[in-house]
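Re: that backbone. Tokens:
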């Protein structure tokens, strides 16, 4: 392994675990975060009827539900690791990707420290089985969606690639935001906000 690749791997791991460190520190950092859920629920596409029908449709189609559940469960780490490994053969692109992840985490960290909402399944009783939150996945980490932000950053980074290995990666990355919404893990607006965070992170990285 080349020395340059080793440095990139160390940098990637440092950025990746910085998010875990933030999650563990959030009970202190997010102490003054404002719950804006009552205002959030006044937006369209946040009603119980909408969320229930969406998740109910997904669960009733196993051929859709099972793959999407797999994509969601692996989506945060998978988006980062798979995209990083793909770009590792092009060190400069890999370095830019890691910087974008770092900027994405910074934007998300500031957002969650200032305000938060809760996921659809936290607010409504939905026809799906949800894993309980733990120290690394506080229930406030919803808007913007970290899953979607990371997936969109990854997608924007590799979008222009046309080799055969990029195709399944792009499909996987596109399915991550879709899975968050169709499974009721995130609101539609969480995915939209995640896209905006990714866009800002990519544009900032280009100027740094």
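Recovered sequence:
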């Amino acid at each position: 392994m080349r020395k340059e690749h080793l440095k990139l791997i160390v940098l990637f791991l440092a950025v990746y675990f910085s998010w875990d460190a933030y999650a563990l520190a959030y009970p202190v950092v997010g102490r003054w975060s404002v719950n804006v859920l009552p205002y959030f629920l006044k937006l369209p596409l946040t009603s119980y009827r909408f969320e229930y029908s969406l998740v109910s449709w997904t669960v009733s189609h196993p051929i859709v539900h099972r793959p999407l559940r797999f994509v969601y469960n692996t989506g945060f780490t998978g988006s980062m690791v798979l995209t990083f490994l793909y770009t590792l053969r092009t060190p400069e692109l890999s370095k830019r990707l890691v910087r974008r992840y770092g900027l994405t985490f910074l934007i998300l960290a500031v957002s969650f420290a200032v305000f938060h909402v809760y996921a659809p399944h936290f607010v409504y009783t939905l026809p799906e089985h949800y894993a309980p939150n733990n120290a690394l996945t506080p229930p406030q980490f919803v808007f913007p969606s970290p899953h979607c932000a990371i997936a969109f950053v990854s997608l924007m980074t590799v979008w222009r690639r046309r080799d055969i290995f990029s195709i399944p990666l792009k499909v996987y990355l596109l399915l991550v935001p879709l899975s968050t919404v169709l499974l009721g893990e995130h609101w539609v607006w969480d995915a939209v906000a995640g896209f905006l965070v990714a866009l800002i992170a990519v544009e900032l990285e280009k100027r740094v």
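Residues 3-207 form a domain with the Vanadium-containing Chloroperoxidase; domain 1 fold (CATH 1.20.144). The chain has a mean pLDDT of 95.
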